[in-house]
Amino acid sequence: MNCLVTGSTGFIGSALTKRLVKEGYNVKALIHNKKSNINEKNVEYILCDLTKPSDLKKLPLNIDVLYHCAALVRDYGPKNDFYSVNFEGTKNLVETFKNSNLSYFIFLSHINYEEKKEIGYYNLSKKLAESYLNEKFEKDNFPTVIIRPGNVYGPGANTWVIRIIELIKKKRIALIDNGMGIFLHTYIDNLIDALIATMNTPKSIGQTIDITDGDYSVTWGKYFNDLVNILGEKPIKKNFSKKSAMILAKIMMFMYKLNITEPWVTPTAVGILTNNKTISIKKAEKILKYSPKIDYHTGMKNVENWLRKEGYIT
Question: In whole angstroms, how far apart are CA 233 and each of 193, 225, 228, 236, 238?
């Protein structure tokens, strides 16, 4: 089976590429503007800018499964950048493969749990792409599957491991509402299991499926302080109420728009860190036979071992 992975140098895309190769699939991996840090012998890497339709003409069309992991993932930035990459890039891919024999177009999206006032351009652009893909499925029977992961963590995770570690070391970490928000932890290997299962499940086509570890007992406060403990630092004492954090976030965004400073907290981040909603994975269990294998305790032990190996812990 021939697989194409976009965003192959990202955290999720690189992990997926490695697993596909390990399981014997033929893999072609798209890279945007940097060398792959995988360098798998059995992977053909293709330099391609998804925002340029002319660039996509170089892509092979004998693809059975396309995993669209490429995205601009930030909680702030110019609106046009998000829409160009996350929405227009997705449309360009669909246009390229609409007349091919593609069996699955698996789109990595984002779980919708923030309040409307906290949703940033990233989430909005993903929602727009979802609507477009659903329309292509309904009108043209395009083989779309939308996978929405929670907060993906694990060895090598930039957003929810490395970035947090750096903030802890700089003493720039704080809790919001005493860290009582629910951490929708999704261990990378569990997500990859779901992605592999998707391309072997015809019933997944046309579906939107949420993926987490299915455990909602872990708060952001516990997660952050577990990372603090791994580093041997003192527990986090600094705390903001959600209201105060949101006011600060809006001030930071105002200063960012005036080109004064980069925001270290945003309304999107406040919404994520104060999340009180649980997300059901029953649909994933039913359709994909998904059963998370790595629990939080094991996942954190793996993260700790990786941090030691990479020199983050001395």
Answer: 34, 9, 5, 9, 14
Q: 152 has which bridge partners? A: 186
Residues 172-228 have pLDDT tens digits of: 999 999 999 999 999 999 999 999 999 999 999 999 999 999 999 999 999 999 999
For the four alpha carbons of 198, 199, 204 and 209, in that order, the dihedral sign comes to positive
Measured CA to CA, the distance from residue 278 to residue 216 in angstroms comes to 7
Tell me how far apart the alpha carbons of residues 16 and 122 are, in angstroms, rounded to a whole number.
22
Residue for token pair 């477009």: 132
Q: How many domains are there within the chain?
A: 1
Q: Render pLDDT for 233-277 as a digit per residue (tens, 0 to 9).
A: 999 999 999 999 999 999 999 999 998 989 989 999 999 999 999
Enclosing domain of residue 34: 2-153+187-218+278-300
Q: Is residue 200 assigned to a domain?
A: yes
Of 106, 99, 101, nearest in space to 201 by CA: 106
Q: d(Cα 241, Cα 286) in Å, to the nearest integer?
A: 39
